[in-house]
Each structure stands twice: as structure tokens, then as C-alpha cells.
Amino acid sequence: MSEQILCDHVIVQDGRIPLTKNEEVLVCGRNEAVEGWRGIPLPQAQFQLNVILQNQGYLHARFERTTTQLRVWKGPVTNTSELKISGAEGLVNAGKKRKIVGYPLEPKKLDEVNEWIDMSLRRQGYACPAIKLSAQAWDATILAAAEPGERRRISKVETTGLESLDYESIRRYEAFQGGDFYDVIDTQITAARLLNQGLFQSAYFTTQCYDDKVDLHLFTGVGKGRLVRFGLGASTEELPFADLWFKNTHLDDKASSYTASLHGSPIKQKLNISSELYWLPISKRTFLGPRFKMERRKEPAYELFKTVLGIDLGREWDWQKVRWQGRVGPSSNYEKTLTGIGPKEFKTVSWEGSLNLMNHIYEAFSREQYEGWNAGFQYRGQRQGIGSSVNVDRYDVTFKHLWNLGAYSPPLFVFASRFEAIAIDSKQTSNLQERDTLPIDYRIFFGGDENIRGFARESLNKHGLGYLTAAHAGFELRLIEELPYHLQPFLLADVARLGTDRYTLDPPLFVTSGLGIRWASPFGTLRGSAAHGQIWHGDQSSKDYGQHWVYFISFGQEF
Amino acid sequence: MKRLLKWFLIVVGALAGAILGVAIWIFTNPLSAWHFAERHILPEDLKITWESMDFGLAKTDWRHWQLNWNAEKLKIEKQAPHLVVPLEHIVLTLSMASLRFTIDDLQVQAAQPVRFFASPETEPKAEHNYYEQLKTALRFFKRGQKVIEIKKLDVNVTDFQYIALDKSTAHASLKISKSPDALEFISHLTHVADAVSEMQLHGHLHLGLTDLPLFTANLNMKGPHLSVQGPLSFKYSGEVGHFTSQIGIHYSKGAQTYAANPKLRADLEASALKISVESPISGIAGPIVKINQLAAAIHIPLEAGEEWSEQPTTLKISVPIALFFIDGNLRQPIEKSCHCRIPEELLAKIDGKVWLKTLLEKASPSKRPVMDAGFSVAGVENKLFSVALGAHLQVDSESGKWNYAPTLDSLLTIHSYQGLRQYLDAKNILIPAPLDILEGVIVLRAYGPIGIAYAQGKQTEFTTALALKMDLKSNGQNVAIRTAATLKTNSEFKRVDIDVLARIDQLLLDLPPFDPLRGIPKAKRDSRILLTKPAPTPAKKPGIQVFVNLRAETTQRNAIQLKSKLADPFVPLNLLIKQSDESKPTGVLDFGAFSVTYLRRKLYVDSLKIDLAETSNHDYPVDGEFHVQQTDYKVIVHVGGTSSAPQIKLSSEPYLERADIISVLLYDRTNDQLAGGDAETVGNVQAAMADRALGLFGLWAFAATPIRSFSYNTVTKTYTATIALGDGLTAGIGTNWEQSAQVEVRKRVSKQWVLTASWAPTDEQTEVGKVVLQWERRF
Predict the structure, then answer these.
(1) H-helix or E-strand containing A152?
(2) How many other CB atoms are found less than 10 A from the CB of residue B669?
(3) Which domain holds residue A101?
(4) Total structural domains within chain A
């Protein structure tokens, strides 16, 4: 085994010892330092190296020292053989903690176990647990003695820093209710929602336990309400783009807000004004949402200009550890198809509504994408005679589930599945020749990273006419924390069937299989995939679709 | 005249007649005569009984008489001193001729235990010294030999018991018989003491005053751990008595084995008793010394008519002490350092006087000296160190009360601290950097009287003083410390209390050239990882318990100056530390004002005190105030709580809200002028402060360095921060500090422009990410 000369007098005989610059000072001294720190006495170097090695899991290092030289044998790393947890039986299962057994017995692993037990208990109502960690070098066992304390319910919530804001209105962001068992995830979600709203510059909770209760204290910092941003950037869809964004988050003491944004790129130019106005006297969670959007979009199959003016009635609430978001309202639309198939120009009134559900675990760990689920239902419809030439309704149902197989921490495999069903109901356009009277939003274009990945983006479009019915399921099996640099390889499979007519799914079956890799970078999630599209039971309608490998690289987009 | 002569003859005749009458009465009525003597002549506490007694006087020819006395079951009892002597039988045949007696036969048989009970000392003062007593005894023997001749002697005492005051009993047997030219005796003792279970003395007593030794014997003594064996001899010639012995002493207990073979000679002459002892010794090794030899010379003056002379006894003891702790490996570097030869041995001497008259005789009401002795070790002087060890003990007595006046005067000077360091290096005792390059002198002195405390007439405590002075220097460093210590021990020497007062006059040291953002190295390993199985605590051996009480203090303001490139001008420190074995250390570290300049930012430490009274969380209370002078504001940070979980209070001049203060501290702008990401950073810092997740180092980093981003996880209570190092370089720091997490979701490219990633859902409800070069303003 090669030797490493740490400095003139200190030699590692079996491999390398990584030292930080400051550790080097304590082991070797520094030539350019003051006299007292140019050299280190060998006994001190030995002592310090022993500390460093033991903190790296080398618990049986050996040293040989002469008057002029120190030789170091790191010896083998002591890997943890067992993790034992006492005091939290039925609450925390040691067998579910990965990356501990078989890994070096070092302080950061003890910290990791401590954090995991602490968080596991605090997710189950044990708001103020005490955990004592120790490790036995002779049998490489980590022992965790937990004292969960009482399982506590949330008693009261105090706030600081809300200034003139109405706390009852702000409660719409709370992921918990008084009397609920404490769950640290709920407080984290609440703080994140407040920060995302924009008005708050800081939001965090502190806890105080007593008896079987826990009091929460929300500390917030309210910023000035008007925020303007200007940005230049890029996304996977657009390169480059410019944004001008303005938001007033403090229209009143209920934190009503409106946002105006101007977006420009070669593909899309858009003005969007939206609002959430908590003006209704009957509810502090229900809002009015007047909105206006003007957009020009250029896609491969079409180029579109449209404006939408509408108003919604919306509400957001939490129930059964699920965030519910619903909104519905009419819109006045003006749309002009500049190129591609579709009505050249029309004005109409439509109804739009949506109901989205997201469970708290999914919301809290949305960046990690380890577990949880979300579901959504969207509706859009317009009626003939109110500016529209046809009666048409669009129903979208989506469901996504992330399954941490074995419930390990961190997960070993995450099995992700998503289902989507889209139905466009328009009797008047059942005939293909009349399909071009349908606005683009009422035609289904499939293919791409969002649904069936073995086919190019919106390439399954029936020569630009689009489909009226679609059902697809996608699956992904992702390997977690087994590759360096947090790279996560995955296998993927998608299956979809489309229908030209309403409520009808026709052959063929579009199938995709492939593989990819995900990297949760500090700037966002980078995903790359290679998927091969196949057409099963193909017919005349699918003969123009290619069956080949499709490569995607996306940024910020999850499964 | 005739008449006078007539009366004289009548009186003498009457007296002779009376004596003859009494003699005839005694001879014819022995029992009545005995009872008369028992009642009127013998001591009242003496009781003599017998079962049968024959008494006969026979005339063998006209000049020779023979007395035969035979007693059976003779028992002698006396109360003071208390003794019981039951004799089985006693036979005495005594011949008398021409005023010379011959013991033809003397047999004494004691089969029953002969008991002697110890009583408090009531012996009258002897009026003769040992020499005179010896001379008297020899004169007695000489005269006795002229009138008495022993032909046959047979004394057999099978069980002589000595019952001590504490009722412990020692047993002995004694046989004395007459050989042609001497009396032979064998004495066998058992249960003499705890250390001696068996002792035998077998020898001869030559009473013929020939050239032969008066007394020769062989001593054989055994105990559970002790073995003593060797010859004893006493010879008297030329008016001088010579006692010689060379006995082997061997003591072994557990791993300890001691052996000595002292050659002793005592010459008793008219003017003095001179004793000399020389002995090889093995096994006596202290922590740092070893004794192989001992030599002693004692001169006890004698004075005619006095048991002990008024003149003092002089004693001289010399012990060569081997410096065995300086082994071959050590000797070479030390001798190289001091350019000298380290001696193999140092000669320790005890030289003193003892007034035996005061020591052993009845107490005098006037103050009289008892002892005046000095202890010294031959000095060693070289370039590395010099040693001069000395002690003195003076004892006097007044009205039975003994007064001790011991004093110490020892000096150890280490001329070369570097030599000491080399020695300690070889002994695996670490002197860490930067102290290892110092050079200078260390002086350890034990001096002055040893104080003695009394309680109820008994010595209860002894105290003495030590002083240590260090004067060490290197380029830019200086250590000047004076340490005074007091040693206190109880009369049994079972407990030693050492009070140490270290006074730091000046301590200039260089701090290690750390780059704080590279992580502060751990100085000790994680105590949660146990390297060895905890062994069952062994029962504590009763031994000397040593308790150290330490007090360290600086003698002048800012006496400690820790120098670093970051600190301007240095880190001034004052301390007061108290530590005792029985309690945790207490005291305070009091930092004076200084500033820290790092990454072009300056933090002023106005005050900082760390209380060394450890909390239950193994943490230390802190109280300090820092300030940072930003462009328009002065931000004042007051720190309370504990070092790893400080409570932070912020204020500013002019007044700002807390969020604005943090904002100014981080970005030199108020909150409303911040971009969104920076505002979030401010919020995260606030959250971390509230959770007391920022330790003192974290606080320093966020106050004294340009923070680019700060991310705090309220679930795990850990933070990561990115610090701008300049020239586009960043460094990540974290709760664990050693972590160099490069978590950064925003990258500032100028004061107003930030490169950021956004996950804001688009209105199409998809999760499309964007990389945005963004300008932001809140108003």
C-alpha cells in the first residue's frame, strides 16, 4: 500500500489521511506561520492524528515514533455492525435506518442517527424528545437511548411579528389545527407557505412543551408589501427569457395580493395579472381571484395568441394531512390561431375549475421526491352561443404517488407512479373534419417528459388535430443514495392509449421503456432520460409515429 | 573498765543467744517462721504457696555443709508488677565450704504457663548509664564467680506469657543449661507482634571472663512477610564492650520485596556508645529514586552517674540515591542538552543531634532540645539543571509537650526549558506547540518552616510551601508565571491537600494560524464513541489520597495576550480559575477589547466573559458585547446564554428593527432594500438565533464575515451558510463547522443582481424550473 508523506516528519504507511488546512496546522505546522507554529512536536502530531482518525472511523490506528519521525498506520475502518435503539419501541425501527450499518463508525453517523430518531419522534407527536447516543468500538455497535416523553397535542399558537396582519386570515396557511398531535412537518410546511406567499421575509416556529401539550410560537418578519423583480434567464422550454414581475402582497390586513408579470422569450410572450382577494365577509379562507392573461405562444404544431379575463372563487384548506386547493370561475377568452390547425379567431366565455390535493409529506419533501401523493382535477368548458361555436368540456384527472419501498431512511428504492386521464366532451366535433373548430386547449397533444417519454414533445398529435381522450400511466423505479454526488438512476416505463373520439380509447398502445438519471443539484433538479417508444397493435393511424430512442434533459421538472 | 567490758560481753552474748534462738526457732518451726515473714517482712502483694517443700541441711565434714531444698507446686504471685509463676518443682542443692558456695544442682521446671502482665511504666529512674550498668553486671558476675560455682543448671520454662495492656499475648519458652564453659540458652517466642510470628534466639553466655565473647547467639525471626536471620555477638575487652551483628532482613509482600543485610557494630565505652551500620539495600524505589546502600554512624555520649548524658547524640546517615529514572535512552539526550555528565547517584545525608536524655527520660518543665537534624542531597549543577535539596527538623520538649519545627530549603532550577522538553518528550509527556519552542528558566523551591497544627494535643496537620517560577521566552512569545503551593497532610499521612496559586504575570502566545472557514479542528475525539469496555471499578486501595486545589489568576489587566493575524492588536485575556478535586472548575475567562478583521470586515469585541461553571449540558455561560460598524449604522450584538447556544440580543445606533439589524449586519442594507433571497437569508438567521442553533463561532461568522446565503433547517436544527471569500470564491460552513457544504441556491453576482433558481409553479401548474439572473427590490 502506498505511503503518504503528510509532512517531513509524519508519514502515513497505509493509504491517505485527508486533512483540512487547519488540521494540517495542528499535525505538521505551517512553514509561513509564526515561529511557534512552524513545527509541531511529534507527540502532539500523534495525538491530533489519533483524534482525526477516530473521527473518521479509524479506531485502531497505530503509531511508531522516533525522535525525528512519526509513522502512522491507520488500520482498518471500523464499520458499524449494529444499531440498537432503546426507549422508542414501536415508534422508531432501527432496521429502517440505512447508511449506518456497514458504514464507518464516526461522529457524523451518530449525529445522523440522532437527527433521524429526533425527527421520527417529532413527526409522531413527541415534540420534545431526548436522545443519548453512544457507540462501542469493541463490537461496533451504536446504541441510542431515546426518551420520547409525552405524546403532545398542540395547545396554542402565539405569534410575533405579524404587525397589522389579521392572524385569523393568516391561519389559512397553517397545516395543523389546535388539538392535533404535534408534527414537526406541519410547522415546517406552514413556515414554507408563509415564505412562499412573499409578504413574509422570515417565518419559523419555536416549541415549548409542558404536560402532554406543546405550545407553538410563530415568529414572522413582514417585509414591505410591494416587490418588483426583473430577471434574465433560461428554462428547458425557453432559452432565453426575460421576466418583469411585480407583486403587492399586502393589499389589506388579510394579506390579499395581486401579481403582475411580463414574460418574454422567442417561444412565449405573456402578460399575466392575477390576484387573491380575501374580501368575502363569510370566510377568511375563501378568496376572489380576478385574473387577466394575454399570451402569444409558438409551438411546433401551432402558433397562438390569446387573452383571458376571468374571476375565480377559490379556497385553500387542510384536512386529514392533505392540502386542498380549489378554485372555480368564469373566463372571457379571445383566441387567435396564427398558424396550425384550429379556429382562426374566436371570442368565448368559459368556465374553469380545479381541485388539487397534496398530502403533507409530499409537500414537505417535494424537493426530495421520496414519498407522498398528490392528485388533481381540472375542468374547463365553454358553451355554444356564448362566443363559442361549439359546446365543449375538458376534464383532467391526475394522480401521482411516491412509494418509499421498505420505508427506509434514506430510501433505497422509490417507486413512483402517475396516472392521468383526459376527456374532451364535444358531440359537435365528433367528426374529424370539424375538429379544427376546437380551440387548441380542447385538443390533446401527447408525448414528452410530462407524459409518455418515448415520444417527442407533443408529437402524438394526429397530424395536428389532437385527440379527445387520453389515458396514461407512468412508472419509475429510482435508486437512492447509492451513487456518488447524489446521483439517482432510475428505470422508467410509460403506457398510454389515446382516443380520437370522446370517451373512447383506440388502439394502438403507446409504450415506453428506458432509463434515466436524476440529480438534485443546489440549483434545482436535473433529469436526463433515454426512453424508447414502442407502438403495440399499431394501425394506419400510428404509422407516421416513429419508434425510436428519445432523449430528454430537463431542469426543475420532476416525474 | 571491767564493768564496761562485762556489760558488753553480756549484750553480745544475749544477741548471739537471741540470734541462735531465732535460728533454732526458724529451723524447728519453719512454717511459723514463713507465716511471720509473709505477714511482716515480704511485700503485701507477694503471695508464695507450695504443695510440699523439703528443706534439709547436712554436714558432710567439719568444714562442708550441704543445703538441699526441694519444692513441689511452688506458685509465686505478685500484683505489681503483676506476675504469676507456677513452678512444677524446684530442686536446689547448694554446697558451702570455706565461705564458697557451689550450686551442685539447680532444676527449675515450669510446665504451667508463667504469666507476666504488662503495666504502665513505673520504673524508677536509672542512676547509671549503660556502660556503668554493664560494668556493674560484670563486676557482679566476677564477684559471684568467686563465691558461687554452678555445676549443673537446668531451667525449663515451657510457656512464658507476656500479656500486654491491650490483652494481646506473646508466648515464649526458655531453656537454660550449663555446658562446661558457658550457659546455653534457647528462647523461642511466638506471636511477638503482627509482623513477627516466631522468633528464636539460641546462644551461649560465657561468664568466665575469658577472651571468648561474653554473649553469642543466633537470631532467627519469621513473620508473614518478614524474615530475619543472623548472628549476634558481644565481647568485652579492654574496658570496651563490642557488639556486632550481621543479620539478613528480607521483607516481601505482594510485588514489593525489600532486602537488607546491615552490618552493625556498637562499641560501648566509658564515654560513649558508638554505633555504625552499613547495609546494602534492595527493593526501595520511589517514584523517581532508588536506594541501594545505607550507612549510619551514631555517637551516644555517656556520662557517669547518669542514664543519659546531657550531651547530644550525633547521627550521620548517608544514602546514595540512584537516579534510575534517567535510563540509557534518556541520559543521552539530556547530557547532550546540558553538555554534562549526569551522575549515576546522588548522595543524601542526614546529619543531626538527638538529646536522648530529653527524649527518653522524664519530662522537664523547662524547654529542652530533643532533636536538631538536617537532610540534604548532594547538589548537582550543570547547564540543564541544578538541584539542592535540604530539610531541617528541630524538636524540643517543654513540660512533656513536644514541639516540632521542621523546615524545608530545597531548590530545583531547570536552566534549560528545552532540555526539560526533550526529557518529557522521551517520557511521552506532551508539551504542545507553541509552548514547545520556548526557552528559559524554571525554578522550583520548597522553603520555610513546615507548619504543624495541633488539636487536643495531637498533631493533626502539616503544611509546607512550594514556589514555582517560570520565565520562558521565544521570538514573540513570553511566559512569566509564579506559582505558590502549599502542601498539607494529616498526621497519618493518608491525605495530602495541595493548594496551588498560579499567578500569571505575562503570557504572550501565538494562536494557531487557522483559517476559520476551513473548519475548527476537533481538539479531542468524540466521547460518545467508547474505545474499550468499561472495566468494573476496582475497589479503591487504601493509600494516600491527594487533593489538589488550584487557583490561577492574572496579576495585571490583559496579562494574557493571544496573538493572531485576525485579532487586532491581539486577544487580551484575563482569567480567574479555581479547580479542586472535589468540584468542577469555576472561574471566569474575561476577554478585553479587541477587533477581528476577516474578509475585509471588522468585528469589534467590546467585552466577552465566559463563566467556567459548567452547565448541566456541558456548556458554559457567556456574556459579551460585540459591535460592527456598517456604513450608516452601528450594530451592537449582546450575547448571553451559553457558548454553544447563545441568546443574542441585537440593537443598533440609530434604532432599527431586529430584522433590519440582521439585514444591515449581513448586507449593510435594511430589509426593504434586500432582494428576495437575501431577505430569506435574514429570516433564516433569525430562525437559527431563536433556536439558539448558532454557536459562538457561528455568531462570529455571521457577524464578521460577508454572508452570501444562510439556510436553516428548522427540523434538524442545522444551518449551512455560504460566505463570500472575494474574487467569486465562496466557502460553506455549517452547524458542525467542519462541514463544508456548498449548498447555495443563489449566487450573487453584484450588489443588486443575483443568479437564482426558481421553482415557482407556473400558471400551467407544472413544475418547471428556471435559472434566473434577477434584480429585486422591495418597497
Answers:
(1) none
(2) 18
(3) 82-147
(4) 4
Residues A284 and A391 occupy one common structural domain: yes
Residue of A nearest to B753 (CA): A231
Task: Determine whether the interchain pair B512/A25 forms a contact, defined as Cβ–Cβ distance below 8 Å.
Answer: yes
Alpha carbon distances (Å) from A90 to A87, A120, A148, B509, B534: 9, 11, 11, 55, 30
With beta carbons less than 8 A apart as the criterion, state whether B659 and B666 touch. no
> CA-to-CA distance for B435 and B421, rounded, in angstroms?
10
Helix (H) or strand (E) holding A371, with range, is none
One domain for residues A290 and A403: yes
Q: How far is CA B731 from CA A59, B86, B128, B233, B744, in A?
A: 30, 103, 97, 91, 10
Of A240, A245, A271, the C-alpha closest to A257 is A245
Question: Which three-class secondary structure string do you get for A237-295?
Answer: CCCCEEEEEEEECCCCCCCCEEEEEEEECCCEEEEEEEEEECCCCCCCCEEEEEEEEEE
Question: Residues A165-188, buried b or exposed e (16+ Cβ, 10 A)?
Answer: beeebbebbbbbeeeebbbbbbbb
Regarding whether A234 and A306 lie in a shared domain, the answer is yes
- For chain A positions 413-452, those within 8 Å of chain B (CB to CB) are 450
From A386-400, B277-291, B486-500, B726-740, the region with the lowest mean pLDDT = B726-740
Give the end of a domain, one of A73, A90, A107: A73
CB within 8 Å: B768 and A235: yes
Length of chain A: 559
| Rounded alpha-carbon distances, angstroms, from residue B345 to A556, B289, B380, B627 | 82, 9, 10, 63
Q: Choose among B224, B299, B239: nearest CA to B265.
A: B299
Contacts of A456 (CB under 8 A, 6+ apart): A447, A448, A550
The interface pTM score, or ipTM, of the predicted complex is 0.84
Residue A315 shares a structural domain with residue A392 = yes
Q: Which amino acid is at A185?
A: I
C-alpha cell at B645: 447556544
Give the angle subtended at the CA of B695 by the CAs of B691 and B697, to the nearest 5°: 150
| Long-range Cβ pairs for the range B141-150 (8 Å, 24+) | B141/B207, B141/B209, B142/B209, B145/B207, B145/B208, B145/B209, B146/B100, B147/B99, B147/B100, B147/B101, B148/B100, B148/B101, B148/B102, B148/B103, B149/B100, B149/B101, B149/B102, B149/B103, B150/B102, B150/B103, B150/B106, B150/B178, B150/B183
The reply to whether A238 and A382 lie within a common domain is yes
Mean pLDDT of B629-657: 85
pLDDT surpassing 50 at residue B736: no
DSSP, res B327: -
Q: Write out chain A residues lying below 8 Å of B666, CB-based.
A: none
| Separation between Cα atoms, residue B67 and residue B55, nearest integer Å | 8
Short-list A163, A484, A192, CA closest to B684: A192
The rounded mean pLDDT for chain A is 89
Q: Do residue A466 and residue A369 come from a single domain?
A: yes
Greatest alpha-carbon span in chain A: 100
Answer yes or no: are the C-beta atoms of B617 and B724 closer than 8 Å.
no
CATH number (domain holding residue A494): 2.40.160.50
The pLDDT score that the predictor gives to residue B361 is: 76
What's the CATH number where A123 sits? 3.10.20.310
* Residue that is written with C-alpha cell 475548527 in the block: B520
Question: Which residues, 6+ apart, have CB-to-CB distance to B180 below 8 Å?
Answer: none
The nearest alpha carbon in chain A to B763 belongs to: A272
pLDDT tens per residue across span B397-413: 888 777 888 888 888 88
Q: Which amino acid is at B339?
A: H
Closest CA to B130 of B294, B281, B272: B272
Q: Between chain A and chain B, how many beta carbons pairs sit less than 8 Å apart? A: 259
User: Do A421 and A358 belong to one domain?
Assistant: yes
Degrees (nearest 5) of the Cα angle B751, B709, B747? Answer: 55
Tell me which of A19, A44, A73 is where a domain ends: A73
Write out chain B residues lying below 8 Å of A200, CB-based: 683
Could you tell me if A332 and A447 lie in one domain?
A: yes
